[in-house]
Amino acid sequence: MIEQIEPSVDIETTEIPHDDFEVAIQICGTLIDAANGEVVVIFGGGARDIFLPLTVAALSRTHHIHASYQFSDIDGEVRERTLPDLTANAPTQTEQTLETIVTLDTPVSLTEITETMDVSKSTITRHVKLLERQGLVTSETHGKTKVVELTTTGRILISRTRS
After folding, report:
1. pLDDT value, residue 7
2. What is the per-residue pLDDT for 6?
3. Which of 65, 75, 79, 150 has the fewest CB atoms within 10 Å, i.e. the most exposed one?
């Protein structure tokens, strides 16, 4: 299955203890951190005892993961998945901008954000760039209008901070 997804992949096998959850997470994380080249994680097949530690390690190191795939037990399909960064935070100066994007219900234009917050467009543009670097929003330009939308990472952060 791996060769079908990534034909030029080198496979490395490491024994992961199934009876010590914390050690299993640490070993999976160390493997991801120490990898040379692009890291591809496949969530499918293998022992379920290792699935959760691998998932925790991968979700805490999304910046090291080149690609991730999920094998469906239901339809047999393999799908590429974009992993949310569960450790992401909004820089302090951008928190109000992020809240405004949420309140206005994305996708939302920079102009709408600027008018709602009564802040300069250059400030909002800077904030959006910072939020994009954190993976909390994406933006696209449609003609002369830049539109901002929350990512899965952004939605998770908002739900985490509101609970």
Report:
1. 72
2. 65
3. 75
SS3 content of the chain, % helix, strand, coil (to 5): 50, 20, 35
In order of start, what are the domains of the chain with their CATH numbers? 2-81 (no CATH), 92-162 (1.10.10.10)
Please list, in sequence order, all residues whose beta carbon lies within 8 angstroms of the beta carbon of residue 3, skipping any fewer than 6 positions away.
9
What stretches of the chain adopt beta strand conformation (E)? 39-43, 65-71, 78-81, 108-109, 137-142, 145-150
Residue pair 57/21 in contact (Cβ under 8 Å)? The answer is no
Q: Pairing between strand 39-43 and 65-71?
A: parallel
Question: What is the Cα–Cα distance from 115 to 1, expressed in whole angstroms?
Answer: 51
pLDDT tens-digit readout, 84-137: 998 899 999 999 999 999 999 879 999 999 999 999 999 999 999 999 999 999
Dihedral sign for Cα atoms in the order 71, 3, 41, 130 = negative
